[in-house]
Amino acid sequence: MSADSGPPPRPRPRVTAAVLAGGVGARMGGTRPKQLLPLAGRPVVEHAIAAFCAAPEVDDVIVLMVADHIPEVEKIVAHREYRKVSRVLPGGATRTATSAATLRALEQAGDDELVLLHDAARPLVAPEVIRSCVEALGTADAVGVAVPSSDTVVEAGAGPSGAEVIQNVPPRASLRRMQTPQGFRLGVIRRAYELALADPDLVATDDCGVVLRYLPEVPVRLVAGAESNIKVTHPGDIDVAEALLRLRGGTAGGTR
Ligand SMILES: Nc1ccn([C@@H]2O[C@H](COP(=O)(O)OP(=O)(O)OP(=O)(O)O)[C@@H](O)[C@H]2O)c(=O)n1
Ligand SMILES: C[C@](O)(CO)[C@H](O)COP(=O)(O)O
To answer: Which UniProt keywords apply (predicted)?
Structure first.
């Protein structure tokens, strides 16, 4: 080796993807959680499992599922031979609690390992989005996937008559809509969640927000998401996801 070849590259940290499927799908309605509804012939949750199993950047996949439905996911995993899936575990009562359960499940892992937290309700996550999230984690400790807002976004509140009125119009050019995956060096997201879970006023709608709030000194890098990376939330979103998948031709992941 020549004297100026620099330090050897750091070994690639292990990457675990966690598919968060602990929600009940209240906005979707129906009797079963939306992640079990059929989408292009497979349950919604299977699309995200397939995508992360097919991603060469991902070493291990865990699924956090509504406890009563764990056997259904285990059956999918066994039947389709998703070999990277190591565990199907119970989620928590809120999305934040499910993220915290993910971190508890990874308590044996080192602080330098990486974790990607992904909504099972985003079945169309594309391979290039997973890749750019993991690549960004080579130089950042927290990474979110986001798209610019093409709509004007306003802050709303109650006006003098009680009816809803606009209270503020933030400049659109700086606004982004957050998606998943959101990726973290484990030591960082662990520390953020330790602080968050000790806060009686904790309110969070995503994991990057938890890092921003509790570890403001850690920059949260943004990488490009995709308009097609929709979150199946309301009735009708399944039809939109079906149409997008048809355009793409199959599942998000395609292979195991
Ligand atoms: N206790 C929860 C709540 C949500 N999620 C997951 O977080 C993702 C985004 O949440 P959301 O779309 O809100 O799903 P639900 O909570 O199921 O929907 P709703 O709020 O309409 O009940 C979904 O994959 C959902 O399964 C979770 O793992 N654990
Ligand atoms: C994490 C998220 O998908 C980013 O947009 C979103 O905040 C999840 O919100 P939900 O109410 O749990 O669907």
So the answer is: Isoprene biosynthesis, Nucleotidyltransferase, Transferase
